[in-house]
Amino acid sequence: MPEGHTIHRAARRHNALLARHPVRGSSPQGRFATGAAELDGRVLLGVEAVGKHLFHRWEGGEVLHIHLGLFGRFREHPSPPPPPRGAVRLRMEGPQTTIDLSGPTACDLVGEAGMEEIVARLGDDPLRPDADPDRALADLARRRVPIGAALLDQRIIAGLGNVFRAEALFVCGIDPEREARSLSADELRCVWDASARMLRDGVRRGRIVTTDPREIGRPASRMRRAERTYVYRQETCRRCGSAIGTVTLANRPCYRCPVCQR
Asked: Which of 19, 45, 107, 185 gives a 20 to 30 Å CA spacing to 213?
């Protein structure tokens, strides 16, 4: 599932390509035909990301909510676009660029009130300027669940996924099975700061790179895929050489070093 940096990049891209223009809407697949007809010809006012959720605001007060889930993706084409490829839920055709959406978990018209309800269920997003880290950390400090599970709870911190939780916990030297409430204030702050830094780097680079280029010996742009993470899908720890293990938390495998994350 795409993590928060991917959604924020999509918001920036859609703003640059479609915002402030009338957009032709259609649903080649047919599953969003009524909604696409509602949007057809309207001006897209702007696009906003909150965690893993994307919101397109349209003239007339309508809001399109998109959650990519495990299989959703966007494809771009020059306008006018070629015939749809595969099951395209929504096609948004702008004056220069067309964006196709396929396979999302959610693609619904929710209006401003619906958007507010969705956002109210989410925790603070480290990529947003209105994020309140103190509120998120206070929430974590009350949780009796393992910190590795709490970090995937979008009601606490919005936008984190399986890669960033493992990497942030490694960088901070925290065992993912520790109760969230057992972490010190400094440890909790480290988790937030590391997560925020990694997410920002993901937005800038367009890929997840959590390792320090100085440790790898080459710039991030030249790293091989296997060099871009410390513990996620690694066999041995980059820092101590110990075998990487996993523990299932929030129904997902969380990678950890048994030595560096005591």
From this structure: 185
In whole angstroms, give the CA distance from residue 183 to residue 91. Answer: 46
* Closest alpha carbon to 69 in 27, 119, 6: 6
Q: Taken in order 51, 133, 123, 58, is the CA torsion positive or negative?
A: negative
Positions annotated as catalytic residues are: 2-3, 52, 252
| 106, 89 contact by CB (below 8 A) | no
Give the whole-angstrom CA distance, residue 170 versus residue 240.
12
> What residues have CB less than 8 Å from 199, skipping those under 6 apart?
3, 4, 5, 8, 126, 127, 159, 160, 164
* Order of strands across the sheet that contains 97-102: 24-26, 88-93, 97-102, 73-78
Run of H or E including 196: helix 185-205
CA angle 168, 170, 171 (to 5 degrees): 65
Do 247 and 255 form a contact (C-beta atoms < 8 A)?
A: no
User: Which residue reads 């590391």 in tokens?
Assistant: 194
Tell me the β-bridge partners of 57: 46, 63
Cα of first residue to Cα of last residue in the chain, in angstroms, is 28
Can you tell me the distance from the alpha carbon of 214 to that of 158, in angstroms, rounded to the nearest whole number?
30
* 8-state DSSP, 22: B
Q: Is 54 helix (H, G, I), strand (E, B) or coil?
A: strand
Question: Crossing angle for the helix pair 185-205 and 162-171, nearest 10 degrees?
Answer: 130
Q: Contact 79/96 with Cβ under 8 angstroms?
A: yes
